[in-house]
Design goal:
Blueprint lengths: L4 H6 L3 H6 L2 H10 L6 H13 L3 H10 L5 H13 L3 H12 L7 H13 L3 H13 L6 H13 L3 H9 L6 H13 L3 H13 L6 H9 L7 H13 L6 H13 L3 H9 L6 H13 L3 H13 L6 H14 L2 H14 L5 H13 L3 H10 L5 H13 L3 H13 L6 H14 L2 H13 L7 H13 L3 H9 L7 H14 L2 H14 L5 H12 L3 H16 L9
Helix pairs in contact: 4-5, 4-6, 5-6, 6-7, 6-8, 7-8, 8-9, 8-10, 9-10, 10-11, 10-12, 11-12, 12-13, 12-14, 13-14, 14-15, 14-16, 15-16, 16-17, 16-18, 17-18, 18-19, 18-20, 19-20, 20-21, 20-22, 22-23, 22-24, 23-24, 24-25, 24-26, 25-26, 26-27, 26-28, 27-28, 28-29, 28-30, 29-30, 30-31, 30-32, ...
The structure holds one DNA strand of 10 nucleotides.
Length: 549
Amino acid sequence: MSFNLHILTTELSKSFLTLLRTKELHAFITKSHLAFDPFYATRIVRLYSINSKLDYARHLFDKTPNRSVYLWNSIIRAYAKAHKFGDALSLFLTMSATETLPDNFTYSCIIRACSENHHREWLKFVHGRVLVTGFGLDPICCSALVTACSNLDLIEEATKVFGGMPHPDLVMWNSIICGFGSCGYWNQGLLLFSRMRNLGEHPDGYTVVGVASGIAEPSLLSTGKGIHGLCLKYNFDSNEHVASALVSMYSRCNCMDSAYLVFSSLLQPDLVTWSALITGYSRAGDFRKAMLFFQKLNMQGKKMDSILIVSILAATAQSTNIRHGIEIHGYVLRSGIESNEMISSSLIDMYSKCGYLNLGIRVFHVMPQKSISTYNSVIWGLGLHGLASKALEMFEELLTIGLVPNESTFSALLCACCHVGLNSVGKEIFKRMKDEFCIKYRTEHYVYIVKLLGMTGELEVAYNLIMSLPESVDSGIWGALLSCCDACGNVELAEVVAQRLIENDPDKTAYKVMLSNIYAGDGRWDDVKKLRDTMTEKERGKLPGLSWI
DNA sequence: GTGTAACTAT
């Protein structure tokens, strides 16, 4: 068989690629002198990258004498796409020391790689390089920076980069709006959205996906509907990304009817949209519908992906119906979906939540390669079944085999301790999390430790712990303490705590209900009445919907 | 021919 290098590298259609046997192709390429021309080398590197033949790509790159910026960028992108961050970074550093200096696209590529691999420190380093090399106002670099920063929870950095642009283009706007949305600052996202429109910039699909991603709870439903209306107005709703974003937005708002309406308006919903719908039903607790749509999709003969399997397993786990779970497990085994650690973790979780911890542990033992997330699932399972000491053993085991615990590991461990009231062990774990493993506490960790302290009679300690927190305290943490006060019958502390909660968010009535129940338990009916009265007033004074559209 | 987007879970 013989190839024409020019046709080969210009006709980059996927079907064409699959016809080629890579070995033959490689033999041909290494024989051809033209292949080491930087122009062709660049295209061939891309071709190899699509075929996941990074070694061949690297070989060609190393043999090409006069490397252009394009060639450098292609090989760096190839490594970045294959999640080989170390290789991408070292090539980037090497490149920075050559005469062919990185351009704005090189930077944007390595910036994205930093964010995908959660390397904050490297991102800051690259950001510095961007500024030093004079790309600080380049839209290509800056949009990548904004996205990367916000993905790594560095929204202030992202804002700074955006704010430095005198005339942000649409991509820049989209990046920052999406950044705010995904960090949970939905209102900031909307504010920027309207500012952008006032400046005469027209939104596109990316923009609405960005704002929709910030709508994360039922109280924002009316805002979400406004966004949906906007999509209809601009005809974005037939865009697959927009449609999936809307489906999952509605499902986060517990509004599955609207989610289904969006879904059913699509002629050919893709796998992601199906996943969004199924996940939505599962989150809403409608496992019957979740299973029904899973089966519907299955009947169409579509090949599932692992995300869909994970989401349907979560649904069966919550339904605690082991029969469905076994069915899905069978499906996974039959269908030849590559059984990855994500699926295995979900299987372990499903079995343990359905009450068959032993089956979950069997899945765990059968796995050839165990990761931190599979250990996490087992630890959660053991904790759920009250086997805290076994959970702690698993923790020691994962440390011995060299795995690195993460936030979830500690949530699972604290939850396990909490479940059986292992006060001192829990404290120890909580301490090690920060001191030994340098993991930042999140709300859930505080919630567990407060519950653990509170339920084992150390209400004061729990209270002082919360008071010592430097940052603003999430209501969930105070809420945990409040329910402990309730359980221990400590009305004095309950009042103090409830006051804080009500200050924090006066619109939420749940805490007032809790406090009024505590009063009632103590026989303080006057206080109950007073509290109930403020509740109704507040309800009446609720703010009307936003009018930003 | 390189910058921004949808579904995962412990």
